[in-house]
Amino acid sequence: MKNKIVFCVVFLMSFTGLFAQTTAAKQDALVLYHNGKYREAVQVCEEELANNPNRIESYVVMCWALVKNKQYAEAEERASEGLEVSPYDLRLIEVLGEAKYYLGKNTGAMAQFQKYVASAPESGSRVGVAYYYMGEIFIRQARYQHADIALSSAVKKEPLLDTWWVRLGYAREMAGNYYEAVAAYDEALRLNSSSVDASRGRERVNAKLQ
């Protein structure tokens, strides 16, 4: 009886230790990502997926890290793999859009961002980002009125990013909406008085208004 008790205790300690190690490994990838250690985060996620090929959290963190590390083709591939496992995971849908955006695949990227904003809750953490990228794609396509709408939605979600206000000002400027462009550039300068792009944009637009 005593031996059985000792065996059970040892087994439970081993299981608990293994569980703790596994939990720590799962946490490590996200911690590494937040600490800017993107290659290390990818490696941890690869190890997790080797043990569990259906672990969506590993796909998500890996793709975030790959995009941050500018490994866009790899991010596109792994996000697509993750979506085969979980087709409706909004995080993978959005990050696949980012990967395609940086690869210059505007149509594919736009489709992913539109799918994301259509399904994500208003409080979704990447809604503003998705609208921002949509705006940048519209600028690439010289569809400046559409870019204005998308970037206006982006700054509504995240109003403290001066660079987004600059891009909104530029979209409005290129669309010929000069007074609205000045307002956007002014807001960028209010947030960051040293913004060269905002200052130059405001000067250009004011020259056209004179």
From TrEMBL:
Keywords: Repeat, Signal, TPR repeat. InterPro entries: TPR-like_helical_dom_sf (IPR011990), TPR_2 (IPR013105), TPR_rpt (IPR019734), Ycf3/AcsC/BcsC/TPR_MFPF (IPR051685). TPR repeats lie at residues 162-195. The keyword Nucleus does not apply. It holds the Pfam family TPR_6. It comes from the Bacteria. Residues 1-20 form the signal peptide. PANTHER family: CELLULOSE SYNTHASE OPERON PROTEIN C (PTHR44943), TPR REPEAT-CONTAINING PROTEIN MJ0263 (PTHR44943:SF8). This is Tetratricopeptide repeat-containing protein. It comes from Treponema bryantii.
